[in-house]
Amino acid sequence: MTTKLQLLKQDGKEILKSSVHTTLTLLKILIPISIVVKILAEYGVIGIVGQYLSPLMGVIGLPGETGLVWATAMITNLYGALIVFFTLTTTQVFTVGQITILAGILLIAHTLPIELRIAQKAGASLMFMFFLRVFAAFVFGWILYQIFSVTQIFDEPGTILWEPGPLDPTLLGWVLGELRNYLMIFLIITGLIVLMHVLRRTGAIEKINNAMEPLLEFMGMSKAAAPITIIGTTLGLAYGGALIINEAKSGKLTDKDVVLSLSLMGLSHSLIEDTLIMLAIGASIIGVLFARILFTIILMILLVQLVNRVSEKLFKKLFITKIKF
Fold first, then answer.
1. Which member of 67, 88, 185, 324 lies 3.0 to 4.6 Å from 50 by CB, making a disulfide possible if both were Cys?
2. What number of other Cβ atoms are within 10 A of residue 5's Cβ?
């Protein structure tokens, strides 16, 4: 009994230490970037980016004004983007197809300053991850537009079931909101580390690895990347990326595993929460979930082919960051 209690205490200390360390690693990224993003938003940078994106939106069948929605998503987050989107719905009607296309590009490319820095901290090249997500988002939107145009499906007006509440525009409101987010991040990371610890203790993690091995091998990854990839794709890149930082430091993941896992998570992450949000604003599940997963698999196969064909030196130059942990 005493031995079990001592083991439990030791596990508790390890989990708490790992949770605090991982959270602090993440906060070192989140806090300064959140401040910079807030300053950029106050000085109208989002509007400028939106103006540059406006001509491109017509290529994927969307009004030019939606460029501001995408710019807001890329620089801030999905919730900020949806608030901008709902201001547009007061003056024009969007079809289910248009909402699905917009939702698709938002899901792939959003919160880039924070999520790209996390990926860079984990070991992937920031420029590669930026190009992958923005280019993939646009291509995905274009493919959906072509399919919807040819088949003439989803032409009916979209039905909005949910809207985010108004954000507190004051500085104090923003600070309090960020503090709540940071507390939630600590609690979620602690829960994930406890889960990973239990899975390792019970041997379940090995079963997950074995079950995922064929799919991961098909996409060029080792089974060691399975648990973290699952966390990232279901819960979000921030949490999966935070755990990858720890695993990469410990040497449990190869450079190739890190790059491919982060790429997979970048294309399809937070499949539960974010997908539900997009369904609530009128998007089709066919586009924002099933088509996105299929698109991700195809793109990952192409990426694996590229990674396997380049030399080790070129791989590090193109895909690995030069910034140390």
1. 67
2. 9
